[in-house]
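Q: Got a minute? One more chain.
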Amino acid sequence: MYGIRDAQKEFDRVRNQAIWQQALGFLQRKNYDLIDYDEVRKRLAKTVNALPVQKDIPIDAIVGSVSRNNDFTRTFLPKMDYDKNRWVNVRLANESMEGVPPIDVYQIGEVYFVLDGHHRISVMKSYGAQYINANVRIINTEVPLKPTDSPDEIIVKTEKQAFLDQTNIEKLIPEANLEMYLPGEYPELAEHIAVHRYFMGLDYKRDISKDEAVMDWYHTVYMPVIEVIRSQKIMDEFPGKTETELYLWIENNKAALTEEYGEGLRMAALAWKLDEEYGKQKKSIGYRLKKAFFMIFSPDLSDWGIKTGDWRKELRKDDSSLSIQRMMISVRDPIEDFDYLRSAVYFCKQFNAWAGIVHVVKRPSMLDSEWIRKYEQDIQTLLEKENVKGKFFVLKGNLLKNLSDRAFWSDISLFKMNYRPSPSRYRSLGSGWNSIFMRVPGPIFVTPDLFPSKIQQILLAFSQSPKSREAMYFASGLAQSTGGHITVVVSGGDEQRGAVTRKEVENYYQAQGIPAEYITSSDEPGKAIIENANRKRTDLIIMGGYSRSYIKRLFTGSTIEKVLSVTSIPVIICK
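A: Always. Here it is, folded:
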């Protein structure tokens, strides 16, 4: 006959199983705890108020508890020694003729949360029962919860269903696929939509319905980010993530990055930053070696891994518009270069662009010095006087790294040519300008003195190289923005090739409706560019970046250095 000693031994056995299960869970990093009902319930957007129904339910489908989730494991093994007497009494009652009453549970999806009857479930499990009689109150059956789901999966599924109920997005936008796998992400996404709705109300000066806000958020906020993620193939670097999870990372980091780098950060820059910082392959030594190899043997890859044309594709949505919203202004000496700085700020003003003014110091002690504070005050006064939004950044450390990092977030980078690069191919490769042209992403605007207050005459140096084509696109957009006139110079000794090159740029500008003058010269490119720029009294020269690799420039030199070594005219170098 089954007695109290038998029940006590049975408790000791299942209690030891609980200890081993907890130890195994710790080693495997697996959660064997019951799920807290309140954590699931509070995430539900919809519930039903149905009367309890008594029926047999699968014991394995009971995954959580209303109040005692810390007292039993997920398989209802007792975790507390002080439960021994209660467990033993229930075990004996279960053996008696009277038996035990039904347990009380809440149902969400296909799983159950026990309100009363924890010990009864534990006892029934101890001798292999598969079902137990229960009073079931349905809370919500739309959430697709299953008994095999992990605690995190149950939370995520509950949050997703609440998100779908709140936003109605499945009906409004059937093609939307907002899949995520971590707890807390769907509430964050709902908050993004709520904030978007609030600002829509301010913009439109009226109440915005939930449905209108969801539709507008999806098409004007969410999808532009996703399109950048897809166009950059960033998902390849994050095999365990979804597009929506990457969208959340970008949006959640935008505020911190805005504080660090200033307003108006480009979406593709945020996506590139995510890829560069956290991409699976980007962290590997093999990738870093490969990138260094390509930077030496190919002219088409910047230090950030951004290829020729990537910058322009974001700044210009089509071939007829140019959007420059952020400029980086490098300042070596804010006192000596103040006239240059003033002209750079005025250039920003012409485009209504945000100005990030960067000064790099070597010693940390210089960051908070009195003269730095004076520079900051003078520059702030200049920005306010010209009504230009911007910020003065004083950074310490490696000059090139800091400039490259800040330029990454800007649409164009402005530099004063405090010293000229050498036209000698050997000496130029070791210069700082060579490193800047290779590492700084995006267009680079270099001036020997001041930036032009008005751009009326533009000289485009065109050679059919990929970066020269980027210069062609940039020149057309700049001419349309400023009303400037373009003179195209095609140079080199090959007459037939020159004719083909000239025809390409002619066809492009004719299609764009942009008038231009065309000059074909047999002189070498550097000489042809300088002579025609001086003769035409050009305000600005636009040319492509390095079209030859670092290795090839050891033997042939570069047109960029030849031009910059002698010209007094500002030059924009396109990537």
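A: The mean pLDDT is 84.
Q: Perfect, thanks.
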